[in-house]
Amino acid sequence: MKKVKAIIKLQCKAGQANPAPPVGPALGQYGLNIMEFCQRFNEITKNEPPDTIIPVEISVFEDRTFEFRLKTPPASYLLKKAAKIEKGSQTPPKTKVGKVTEEQIKEIAKLKMNDLNAKDLESAVKIIEGTAKSMGLEIVDKF
Fold first, then answer.
1. DSSP string, 10-76
2. Who's near 16: CB < 8 A, 6+ residues apart?
3. In this predicted structure, what is the pLDDT of residue 32?
4. 4-70: CATH homologous superfamily?
5. Could you tell me if 79 and 131 are in contact, meaning their C-beta atoms sit under 8 angstroms apart?
6. What's the CA gap between 138 and 24, in Å, rounded?
7. Looking at residues 9-16, what average pLDDT do you find?
8. pTM
9. H-helix or E-strand containing 138?
10. Where are the chain's structural domains?
């Protein structure tokens, strides 16, 4: 088994990884093949909507090889899409910028379940609700 030298965490837009910052400098300092990463990442994410932000965790091995794991888009990104807003509120408790339904929150929680530190769907929903509130989103019942 190869020995891991470092773990790099980045966020790239689907299908748009390129050698420019943040990708180039992050991988370059470990002597990795930046173009190889960009091509593999872009190939895997090419079917995602073009603006989707995809977190990626890259394990760098001592022999300068690497492997990476894609994660689900950030909860804030998914909430902004669900609420159809550009950005969250500057003053969340005072200014509400949009609404999301409990159903949308549950869908996001299901999607993020593997990446969240939650033991069940109920706790995952609570985490996503907290993110929504901190962004200035109002949570409404569908009914």
1. EEEETT---SSTTHHHHHHTTT--HHHHHHHHHHHHTTS-TT-EEEEEEEEETTS-EEEEE-PPPHH
2. 42, 50
3. 92
4. Ribosomal protein L11/L12, N-terminal domain (3.30.1550.10)
5. yes
6. 39
7. 93
8. 0.83
9. strand 137-140
10. 4-70, 75-140
